[in-house]
Design brief:
There is one protein chain. The protein has helices at 2-35, 78-86, 93-102, 112-122; strands spanning 126-129, 132-135. It is mainly alpha-helical and 137 residues long. It contains 4 helices and 2 strands; from the N terminus they run ααααββ.
Amino acid sequence: MKSDNVQQYLSLRQSLLTEKAALEARLAQVSKALSGQPTAPAAPAPYTGKRRGRPPGKAKAKPGPKPGRTRAKNSMSMREAVFKVLAGKALGRQDVLVAVLKLGYKFSTNNPLNSLGVVLYKDKGIKLKAGKFSLVK
């Protein structure tokens, strides 16, 4: 049974190879008639072995600030500035930002409310009640 399958495969393969050779010969005739010169059948592109991604030996980008950008130098952290502002009173987000800026804190971002929001919403020492932030007692 298995030898029958092998024989059938070999005969089908041989007939396909014969048909391929006949088609290539006919294609060469057609090409010669159209251009006046015979052309060789197109060979598949060779495998170059190149891989996608970062080339070997190339180091990963180092984390840190982007070139040309500098971090603002502040005498206190943003958390310390917020705690000073909220000492004894409750303020809204915009009011906290204005007060922190009046203390002299410098932001190095285009959207300081985002940076301020991280401190206001994530810090366990600050609570939000009725839209106003205050210190936890």
